[in-house]
Amino acid sequence: MSRVPLRPYLVTKDEEGIFRVTVRTTRFNSQGYPLVSAEVLDDAFKTQTAAKVFVREEYRAEANQIATK
């Protein structure tokens, strides 16, 4: 597994066409191995832009902290 930290916010489109936000937390164990926890938020968005705006406003995220898939 890569030691490069993941972007903490992921915006994905589900099979119904709704955009969801996943908040990821990366920690490192005593040997430097990354441990990633992910939580999908209950909020649903019609557009990717609306999801990104939500993340920027609620979590004060910068544009380079948001990944899309």
Give a summary of the structure in a few sentences.
This protein has 69 residues and is α+β, with helices and mostly antiparallel strands.
Keywords:
4 strands; alpha+beta; 69 residues; four-stranded mixed beta sheet
List the helices and strands and how they pair.
Blueprint lengths: L8 E5 L5 E10 L5 E12 L2 H12 L6 E3 L1
Parallel strand pairs: 1-4
Antiparallel strand pairs: 1-2, 2-3
Structure explained in plain terms:
Helices cover 17% and strands 43% of the residues. With 69 residues, it is α+β, with helices and mostly antiparallel strands. The longest helix has 12 residues, at 48-59. The radius of gyration is 13 Å and the shape is elongated.
- pLDDT average, as an integer? 92
Largest sheet: number of strands, sense, barrel closure:
4 strands, mixed
Please provide the count of β strands: 4
Span between termini = 19 Å
Count helical runs. Answer: 1
What integer value in Å does the Rg equal? 13 Å
